[in-house]
Amino acid sequence: MKNNGLLRKLKTEYIGGAYSLICGILIIVLTLAVIVFIASQGMRTFTVDKYSIIKFLTSTNWAPGASKPQFGALIFIIGSTLVSIGAVILSTPVSIAIAIFINFISPKMGEKVFKPALELFVGIPSVVYGWTGFVVLLPFIKKSFGGIGLSLLAAIIVLSIMILPTIASISTDSIKVIPKEYMEASYGLGATRWQTIYKVILPAAKGGILTGIILGLARAFGEALAVQMLIGNSIKLPKSLIDTTSTITSVITMDMGGTVDNSPWNDALWSLALLLLVMSFAFIIIIKLISARGEKR
Amino acid sequence: MKSKASDKIATFIICFLSGFVILLLASLIIYILYNGRGFINPNFLFSNPKIGESGGGIGPELYNSFCLLILSLIITVPFGIGAGIYLAEYAKEGMFLNTIRLCIETMASLPSIVVGLFGFLIFVKLTHLSYTLLAGAIAVSILNLPSLTRVCENSIRAASKGVKEASLGLGATKWQTIQKIVLPSALPQIITGIILSAGRIFGEAAAMLYTSGMSSPNLNLSASITSKASPFNVLRPAESLAVHIWKLKAEGTVPDATKIANDSSAVLVVMVLLFNVLSRFIGAKIYKRYTGER
User: Which pLDDT score is estimated for A1?
Assistant: First the structure.
């Protein structure tokens, strides 16, 4: 009888509970596996090939095919930084405007038009963004600003559209949770809507909006194919917005398939991948710090 | 009066920017569809690509995209739901839960190219199998797991609020309650989440470049299952449609590469639209069934 009860309990409770626990553990294992494998491969540049990590991060001399190969990755680091910061600068004001529109001007339209529209923006594949930018934006930039079309500017514009939904939807949510009393108090004091938004709502939603911006930044930093299609992939620092350059992701995409396994060149590309990984940790830590500060207040 | 005027101006600017974004999206989608209108042609959708001459199709690529989608959903859904159940129902506050949450956040913010490289390292280099459909599907699953887990957790949490205690009170075990009561009522939201993620999987390319590869052997139904030409072999290289667009741009070995890329982009956008509409439709339908409305 006792045995029977155990069997039944096993069937009705333990198996299910254990299964869900395993799934939870799997997530931890997967994350650790990604970190360990990328890190062990990415550290080879510094441990096996004995290239200096400081030179890797601070030199612009990228000559992986030379007889005495050089792996200064600063060009790519600067390229990625410029592209993602540019995209955020373009995207943030528009995203905040949308968040305000959805919350204050027309919540009904926000629900019916903007939410589905933002979902669609997210859904459009990045290669399609890249390709459309290539077909539409490049001729336009070439005609209006000169240059060859392929440029930092093209990548920035396309990325700004790609990260818009991220920033907009997080800003919208963070404005939505601001207590109604804040607004009522401000209106009661005779403030106009814009004064209320500018002086009360935006400061109160600052943490959430900042989180959105960082997530957008992270997405722009890690985006590979759309950027690779538009930025020109020249190994040099850009002289202007309409000049070509490379990013961390674009050089990985271009070269990874063509290099020999475990050659110093290949290892350097893995080091770049590790750098991407480290950057995405950095973004998470920044977000954690922001939300911790928000809770303390 | 100054503050009133600035209020008006600010309202105008906000409306203008918001309208601009909607207009941008609408014109973007209309442009892509119009520019790639040639895709409505069975010859293009189902025939093999050609090498060096124009008039090729995207048959294998389109098929591969569907294979990758289905295979990766088969992998992700059970784990996503399981992890969602654990987080919503079983986990207790503490170190372990915090670790899982941190891991989900970390995974969610991984750039897709990094996930692709991880897949390349494990499933291509270590197994010596070269590029395979399965490797691509697993890489995309890793990319998709965190968001699906979150969707499942939230919908299970929301669904279990009202009904859980009633079920437990009637003597059901925790798992029975989850299985028979909570999961069915969380299902509409979960399905909506799955379909939305399907759109993302369908268009993903960066994670597949170095996992499922950039080549696609022409498929032959009568080939044996171990042959690379068999459509049912999961260990064959399987270039997806999104990767195909990228390759057309990067290499462009056919004279009509631009046209094929335009048309393929239109196909991808149509699929995304379709998944979006479908998720809304199915979500609403199941919701109605459960709430007893007609």
Answer: 47
User: Is residue A1 helix, strand or coil?
Assistant: coil
With an 8 Å Cβ cutoff, is A215 touching chain B?
yes
pTM for this predicted structure:
0.88
Tell me, what's the ipTM?
A: 0.88
Distance from CA of A52 to the nearest CA of B (A): 23
pLDDT of B56 above 80: no
CB neighbour list of residue A23: distance below 8 Å, 6 or more residues apart: B78, B79, B80, B81, B82, B83, B85, B86
The runs of H, that is alpha helices, within B110-237 are 112-119, 133-169, 174-176, 183-203
How far is the C-alpha of A77 from the C-alpha of A83, rounded, in Å?
10
CB spacing of B21 vs A24 below 8 angstroms: no
To which H or E segment does residue B1 belong? Answer: none
Calpha distance A70→A49 (Å, rounded): 11
Write the Ramachandran bin of B193: left for phi over 0, alpha for psi from -120 to 50, otherwise beta.
alpha
Q: Does A193 touch chain B (CB under 8 A)?
A: yes
Residue B71 has pLDDT above 60, yes or no: yes
The answer to whether A76 faces chain B, any CB pair under 8 Å, is: no
